[in-house]
Each structure stands twice: as structure tokens, then as C-alpha cells.
Amino acid sequence: MSDPSSLPSFVRSPQVDFLSSLAVDRTLAKHDLAGSVAHVEMLARVGLLSSAEETSLLAGLRTIHGEIEHGRFRWQEALEDVHTNIEHRLTELVGPAGGKLHTARSRNDQVALDERLYLREAVAQVAHALLELEGALLSQARAGAATPMPGYTHLQRAQLVTVGHWWLAHFWRFDRDLDRLFATVDRSDVSPLGAGALAGSTLPIDPQYVANRLGFARPFENSIDAVSDRDPLVELLFDLALLAVHASALGEEIVLFASKEFGFLLRSPELGSGSSLMPQKRNPDVAELARGKAGRAVGDLASLLVTLKGLPLSYDRDLQEDKAPVLDSVATLSAVLSALLRVVPSLAFDPVRLRSASEDADLLATDLAEAQVAHGVPFREAHEAVAALYADPEGLPRALAHTPAAGVDPKVFAPSDPVASLSRRASWGGPSPAQVARQLALAEDRLSRRRSSLSSLDRKVGLVEELLTEGPK
Predict the structure, then answer these.
(1) Active-site residue 275, yes or no?
(2) CATH value at residue 18
(3) 39 catalytic, yes or no?
(4) Is there a contact between 197 and 227 (Cβ–Cβ < 8 Å)?
(5) CATH code at 266?
(6) Which of 122, 170, 400, 457 is most buried (CB neighbours < 10 A)?
(7) How many Cβ atoms sit within 10 Å of the Cβ of residue 395?
(8) pTM of the model
(9) What is 238-292 written as a DSSP string?
(10) Residue 339: which domain range?
């Protein structure tokens, strides 16, 4: 550890181990460096740095980036955080001019900027994986577009759907998750640099230039709000928590359908490992972990919300705790999506088991009631008549054999063929082949537009690397 007397006065503390955030915020090093590059350029533009000082500082910052990238940077825990470590090393490299880096800037607006630059990158990382998963879901949906399977409510067989319709239900959930992530990036597209500690600066700074250089839509409107606002991180954690819940639901259905009790999914090696004791077992480990990790993501969201609850404006040291749950949740969901992306393409439904389940006459009860309605019977009367039919052990076989049954006209019974039943379910968003084909076309178009949005986000994310690798002006 460095000699305390050699440290900047603002980081000298007998409790440096407790106060330090370096273990977490060093992850933001490249974002911090990119923000410093833009800040130095701005200071030179407004006359607060000479051309020679600007050149020296930019070269020093880019040298530090190289040291960090190649593992040669010597992090000092006594310097508390990533910002002070970088500034200290810069002064070692360029001399007293390094002390000018912090002109008109506070660690308060600095960390708020770093987090927004990181948020862009995190969303892009998750979005790339999510788009791949959505593509895999669509491939499965196309393959099973016309394959009948039972649909469930209350975990009981309810009505016929198709395998493609089921996969698409999960697709639309994940697509809403992607939409939320892009919306979070849009709302966070504000640069906080220039807000200072909380009240801006008396110096002639230009926050608009920094915002433009870093690819933000605009600078902040209120300096107090700028340094205290953690809404983007909360929104990101909510987006990831709900994504985790949706991944958990898919995992749960995979677990159920792969069990012998359902037997719908054929056993896939990608699903997991065998039992350490029982030779016959193959456990759906990946699906179970996708389900289990949702609790971690939800916990990360709760952690940050509780940290923020009741904090007075503007900056409080409590906010040092904002990064760990975000980093954890991004890492967790990236791992979940990567695992699901390996599992989903490997899954195959057992056609024999599905056919048997789809021929369950219970799945046609609503068809029978609606067939009566189509011939003028009030729905409640038809509902009661069909319910009585199913309650009688001999009622349904007689009815399907076109033997007269009380209250039901056998001439208007729906056929018991699952394919015929599905073809009639042509209402908007239903499971008929025509409606599934419409959904697939819409989903393909949606994916194309999502890829375009992600391409735009990637360009903004790339600005960080561009700032850190540009040569001398």
C-alpha cells in the first residue's frame, strides 16, 4: 500500500479498505478514460488547457488504456477508486499537467458518465445474445408450425395449439424484453459531465461538446439531478429481472416437457448431465439453472432500489453500491442467454407422444360448444350441455359416434381430428397454420428492425474504443 502521506488529501482515510470501490469500479476503466479524453479536448477548446497540455494529456490517457488492456497497470487500493488511480498514474506519466485533468469535474459527474457509457455496452452485449436466441426460437417455430400439441391453463390440458405457436409465445416475451432494453438506452442518452459535484462550474466549460463527442443525444438539464440520477441503472436491472423471469418460464416448461410424465421433449445432451448415482437419469440442469438464476436478477433489482430509497439530493456515498448489482445482473443474464442458445436449437419434440396427447378428446370440448353456438345455441346453454357430456363416462363416446345425446345435436359436432380443429382456430393470433404463418412473417420483420437498432447502438458503443485509439491530432 502507498504511504498515506503521498496520497491526495481527498482519499486519505484510516478506513481505506471499507471506503474503496476499486474492486468493482475498475470494470469501468475504459469508459472513465474515454470520458477523460472528451473532457480534455473540451478543456482545450475553451482555453483552459494549452495545445501542448492537451497533446500530453491525451497521449498519457491512451498510454494508460494500453497498460490496462495488456495487464501492466498497477492498481493501488489506497487510491480508493478507478478515477483516482487513473489520475494518479497520468500525473506520473505527464507531470504536473496531470493535475489539470480534473478541472471543472467531480468524481460525482464522472462516475455518472462512466455508468451511462457502460450501460450502452451492457445493453448491446445482452441484446446480441437475445437476438440470437430469438432467431433460434423462430427456427423452432417454423419447424413446428403445423404440429399439434396440447395447450395448458392451470397446468391442465386445455385446448389445441401447435408447437410453432408455443415457441412463438416465448419469442414475443423475449422481444418485449429487447424493446425495453433499447428504450432504456434511449432514455439514458444524456451526458451528465459538466454537472460537477452538484452545481456545475464557474469556468467556461462546454457540456454540449462532450455530449456530442461521446455520442449522447444531449447534455443534462439540471446539475443536481445529473449527479444523483440512477434511474437508467434501475431500469436496466428491471429489464434484466423481467428477462430472467421470462427465461425462467421457458426453463420451467422445458423441465416439464422433458420429464417422463409429459414426455414431449426427447432427451438432449445439451440439456445437462446425468445423475451421480442413478445411471438412467439425465437431468435438465441448464433449464433448471435458467429458472434458478431469476432469483439472483430479481435480488439485484431489489438491492439497488433499497439503496436509493430515501436518499437526499444530490450525491451520497451510498451510491457507491450501485454498480455491483448491475455488473452481477449483466453477467448472470449473459450466461443464461448463452446457455439457452445452446439448448434451444437442440430440442426436439417426440412426435408419437405429441400425437397421442393431441388426440385427447378433452382438448375439443370448447370446439364442441362453439359448434353449437355456430348453429344458434346460446353459449351458456352449449357450455352446460358439453360439460354434462364430458361428465358422463359414456356421453362423449356416444356423441362422437353421432349417437344422440341430451341437449346436443350430433350433426354439428366438431371433428375429433386435431389438424381439422387447428385449421378452424383462425382468429387473430390463434394457432391455425395461417395465423402462425402470419406471426412468423411479423416476427421475422421485427427481428430485422431489431438488428438495425442494435447496429446503431454498436456504433455508439464503438465510440469509446475510437476515443482511446485515435492518434495525435
Answers:
(1) yes
(2) 1.10.275.10
(3) no
(4) yes
(5) 1.20.200.10
(6) 122
(7) 18
(8) 0.92
(9) HHHHHHHHHHHHHHHHHHHHHSTTT--BPP-GGG--B-SS-TT-B--HHHHHHHH
(10) 110-145+162-196+218-351
